[in-house]
Amino acid sequence: MYTGMEMHPTGSSSRLKSTGKRAEAMSILAQIPEAHDVQFEPLQTDKNRPPQLRIPLYIDVTDPYQLFTLFFTETLWKLLATNTNSYAYAKESKNHSLHQRSWYPTTPEELKVFVGAQIYMGFTKEPELKDYWDDGLDNNTVHANHPLSAYITQYRYEQLKRYFHISSPPEIPGGFITTHYPPEPTPEQELQMSEEQLSANISIDEAMVRSHGRSSHTFKLPNKPISQGFKLFVLADHDYVYYFYPASRTKGVIEIGTPTELTKTGQMVYELIQTLPRDERNYIVYLDNYFTSIDLFKKLRDIQIGACGTTRPTSASKDFSDLLKKLKDLSNYIPYHKVCAIPVRDVLCVA
């Protein structure tokens, strides 16, 4: 378990021009024990344990729909239908237009058609939505005959798209409120999590889900590959997202679990780790600057979880030894390949 700080080689010209700083750097190095003299006991893990999927025997892995049902179970479809109907009735009750077609309840079977239509449209692009229902009777048409009209009308598709709701909509006087809360694992999610055997090396990082809808919770990050959307903190293993917690632009990092001495970010990482299947398995979690802290790493070590992460130089003066902060500032004047190791409360800091 350690935090790493990168050192860079220095050119001869910089050494000649900055002998004062080089002398200061060497005096700091003299205060730090040699790395081979540091006593530190790393956690023992099965670092070669590979990730595995334990897919039920009744699932035909060559059938895409059967794999799809592992994530979208019948129980989930019923929940989606219930919440969509609740939202539609609540919105329709506030709309007194004489020209509005009334809503009739949707079903899990109809929602499967709706989602299937969405997937189909993702593979067959058309300039306008109505083109998917073009019957081809007009000789001037340039669009292919799509099969959607055999399963769902355009109007019903638009109705479902308008009212489709995943969560139960809480109604309040004057309309609806937008809730933001940590997701609790559903029975379906717990089943999926039990089917994944994680490797020994996992990571926690930020991720973005693209969204250009109106929400007070979305972020705009123009320098990222996904510049706008919902931010998630994900626990991942070999490109597989095992679990996640959302963040909010207005509320920040959500508070999860019982309050501790950790920051909200540190507590969120700790709670993500708690979702891991333990048994006899141990893990090493890899983090970046945003998450690393001495308090978090110490708490993870207490529950036999290894941690490895980088840290910003500005964090060193708060959480780490002042010597590390000074070494970072003087990194250009330290001999190349010089390794410094400083134990801090059972956490090994390496520069």
Automatic annotation (TrEMBL):
Q: Where is the PiggyBac transposable element-derived protein domain?
A: 63-319
One short Pfam name that applies is DDE_Tnp_1_7
Q: Which InterPro entries match?
A: PGBD
Its name, as the record gives it, is PiggyBac transposable element-derived protein domain-containing protein
Query: Which organism was this protein described from?
Result: Talaromyces stipitatus (strain ATCC 10500 / CBS 375.48 / QM 6759 / NRRL 1006)
Q: What is the lineage of its organism?
A: Eukaryota, Fungi, Dikarya, Ascomycota, Pezizomycotina
